[in-house]
Write a structure and sequence with these properties.
365 residues, Rossmann fold, six-stranded parallel beta sheet, 13 strands, binds uridine-diphosphate-N-acetylglucosamine
């Protein structure tokens, strides 16, 4: 069985790593294509090194651009690769532009090539169509032959959209395979000492959604709230390139002065920071899941989450919307009352380190 696995942006790398490893262990022919949507060392190559991901068999070198430009260039560059490599399966993870671009190409060539499409992390829905990821998820699911889900409500969402249940397979959460494998190494890092932090005595923030960082008023309200938190305990904010650009463009740099600002962090440093934090503020999808498994209180800086199981079973709470400085301060007061639960205590079913095994078994079936 020949399986072409696609990765393009930072949140994809921790998902493809266990799938590629399991394909290899099972004697299957796994090949990797990197679209190059993310390209800085800290956003891309660093993760390949840290997670032991093999060099990509194909690298499209696409880089940044508008949604249309980026998506179109991935499609154009991917088509000849798909025709040449003729895999039995195309495996797509998550909801970035690379995911949608490659699924569109494969769907149009299906009759010619017979390549089927599997979507890992299918069925998540925020119902917020202003999010580029919502468009990418819904369309990729519609084009996929095999929909691999992380939680029960994903299957309900797919059924409500008319997708035949026999195409949907519960696989669990493959990103947690990576977390469980790498946690011992993360705990050996000197991350906290380097940043002058003590366990349980600081908060971590990730912030990069266009809806939060591309609108001045929204970004300044969030940063003012986080600066208030920083008056009480250290706040660590690894700055995503998009956020760095926006903070500079809006002249909001002074609000960062009270926080511990770093470059985007590597996988083990970030995991170590989350693992020992008092709590985490985030607008990322993956961080909501990782904090749930780590048992660390999380506040999500979004209007809706496509990962409601992290709220109903996990450690996640939604900030009151829109996130003013005052609302962030009260979410922080609430965070201080919440215990850190320890690893696995709040983990949903199938977030157990064995999702890649179930994914490869489903592809074989
Ligand atoms: C993308 C994904 C988002 C994911 C995020 C994680 C889409 C639509 N969005 O958003 O779902 O949560 O990745 O990071 O696919 N840049 C660099 N270096 C890089 C990559 C980007 O400097 O290696 C800068 C560029 O200025 C670029 C901007 O960041 O224009 C945004 O990058 P882009 O890939 O368009 O989207 P993200 O915001 O990273």
């Amino acid at each position: 069985m020949k399986v072409l696995v696609i990765a393009g942006a930072r949140p994809n790398f921790m998902k493809v790593a266990p799938i590629l490893r399991k394909l290899e262990e099972s004697g299957e022919d796994g090949i990797l294509l990197h679209t190059g949507q993310h390209y800085d060392f800290q956003m891309s190559a660093g993760f390949f090194e840290q997670l032991g991901i093999p060099d990509p068999d194909y690298h499209l070198g696409i880089g940044s651009g508008s949604h249309a430009d980026q998506t179109a260039r991935i499609m154009q560059a991917f088509e000849p690769v798909l025709v040449e490599s003729r895999p039995d399966w195309l495996v797509l993870v998550g909801d970035v532009n690379s995911t949608l671009a490659c699924s569109l190409v494969a769907a149009k060539l299906k009759t010619d090539l017979g390549c089927r499409i599997a979507h890992v992390e299918a069925g998540l829905r925020s119902r917020d169509w202003a999010m580029p990821e919502e468009v990418n998820r819904v369309l990729t699911d519609r084009l996929s032959d095999l929909l691999l889900t992380t939680s029960p409500e994903a299957a309900d969402n797919l059924e409500a959209e008319g997708i035949a249940p026999d195409r949907v397979v519960f696989a669990g959460n493959v990103m947690i395979d990576t977390l469980m494998r790498e946690l011992p190494r993360a705990r050996e890092q000197d991350t906290l000492a380097r940043l002058g932090l003590s366990p349980g005595g600081y908060a971590v923030v990730t912030l990069h959604r266009p809806s939060n960082v591309d609108v001045r008023e929204q970004l300044s309200g969030i940063l003012e709230g986080l600066a208030r938190v920083a008056d009480d305990m250290p706040v660590v904010l690894p700055l995503h390139p998009r956020t760095r650009e926006r903070v500079a463009a809006f002249g909001l740099g002074a609000l960062l002065e009270r926080m511990v600002i770093t470059e985007p962090l590597g996988y083990h440093d970030m995991l170590a920071l989350m693992d020992s934090a008092k709590g985490v503020f985030t607008d990322s999808g993956g961080v909501q899941e990782e904090t749930t498994v780590l048992g660390v209180p999380c506040v999500t800086l979004r209007e809706a989450t496509e990962r409601p199981i992290t709220v109903s079973e996990g450690t996640n709470r939604m900030v009151e919307w829109p996130p003013t400085s005052h609302r962030i301060a009260s979410a922080y007061a609430d965070m201080l009352e919440r215990p850190r639960l320890g690893v696995g205590v709040a983990s949903p079913d199938g977030w157990d380190g064995r999702a890649a095994e179930r994914i490869v078994a489903a592809l074989r079936r």
